[in-house]
Amino acid sequence: MAEALGLASGVAGLVSLGLTVCQGLLRYYGSWKDSEADVASMISSIHNLSETLTHLDRRITAANPSSDTAKEMQQSVDTCQATFQKLDAKLKKINEKVPPGSHGKLERHIRKAMYPFKASTLAKLQETTTDARQNLHLALSVMHFETTSVAAQKLDDVTAGIAQIHIAIALMKLNRDIRDWLDPPDPSSSYNTAASKRSLGTGNWFVDGPYNLWFTQPSSFYWLQGGPGCGKTVLSSTVVTATSLATKQEPSQPILYYYFDFQYPEKQVADNLIRSLIYQLANQNAETRPPLEQLFEDHGHGLRRPSSSNLLGCLKDMLETPSLKYAYIILDALDECKELPELLKILTTIRSWRETRLRLLVTSRPERVIRENIASLDPVAIMIQSDIVDIDIKTHVIGIFNKDSWWEQWSAPIRNSVILTLTRRAKGMFRWVIAS
């Protein structure tokens, strides 16, 4: 009983602190939610965390958990408390930058003047809020299992229900331990940022053409190459989106993707690619997990780090799970990996499996070392030509201008002249148009 009362008190304090921090972060970052995709993505995470906090508050008020369950839940609550304290410290640091007494428009202008935020800071905030939410879900799951078991009428059912609680707790703890051990970078923030930059109709030259062959051919391997700023990363996100729609996100057809990125040091490490693919696959299809759990056990239950060959062997075994129909892997910006030789060895190994259910697509600049190594892997190489990109750039420019009412004030000849000038001067570089 004492444990349950202590838990309720702890949750009340946690909810109060959590909601205060969430409201403060939303108030601060909300100034850019409509213009910055990375900020919008982080705000969405904070909203989700706030909703989970409110749900936990309602559940703990109505429930009366047993001592064992209260102890298990307390671990998640304590972990989350530490996370909120970090967020609270970050919020106080942010507020110190805004002069006291600033209100309304002045306050918003001050905050806008302080942008841009470091991409790494936004990513860390989103990662922290996601971890907090996962810990809260763990607490809620434990409570749900006990509620379900208590509702049972027969003693045998109650006993079985209690056993299920302990099994579920052990599995959730194992999942959390494995995630912490793998420590995989989250590629979703890169995907969200790239996807938000796409204008409707761009990339159709690939999705309506070569993509269909890549999507359906056994053991297909496509390499999209192009110069800097030609839109490779946005095209990669378009491929991820199209594949998600085509597969309806069925667990038997997992979609694994990764973005190498100069902005994030952790996303430039070759090994982290394998860690991320393994973690994504395990989360999308539970039947693929046994090789990962075995790898974790073989390495002292997370005390030792696995080698690249260990990780690749685990990924191979997971991809051979009988319930998988197909697996799609999309890798963007190989040239932004600081360990390029190691990365090319990983690609060579994956191709050597000749797994007929696997479809692999990569993008990069046409650098000599990449070109020479990938050529030996029998890819379908597609050069993103400037004439193709020009069509997409024109579509992108029109899409941007059509969102602004002032654009309609100009005559059709002037609008066409502006579009043509921007498209020509871009010379196949989306990045130039965005900068302009």
TrEMBL record:
<feature type="domain" description="Azaphilone pigments biosynthesis cluster protein L N-terminal">
    <location>
        <begin position="2"/>
        <end position="164"/>
    </location>
</feature>
<dbReference type="InterPro" id="IPR027417">
    <property type="entry name" value="P-loop_NTPase"/>
</dbReference>
<keyword id="KW-0677">Repeat</keyword>
<feature type="domain" description="Nephrocystin 3-like N-terminal">
    <location>
        <begin position="201"/>
        <end position="365"/>
    </location>
</feature>
<protein>
    <recommendedName>
        <fullName>NACHT domain-containing protein</fullName>
    </recommendedName>
</protein>
<dbReference type="Pfam" id="PF24883">
    <property type="entry name" value="NPHP3_N"/>
</dbReference>
<dbReference type="InterPro" id="IPR056884">
    <property type="entry name" value="NPHP3-like_N"/>
</dbReference>
<dbReference type="Pfam" id="PF17111">
    <property type="entry name" value="PigL_N"/>
</dbReference>
<dbReference type="InterPro" id="IPR031348">
    <property type="entry name" value="PigL_N"/>
</dbReference>
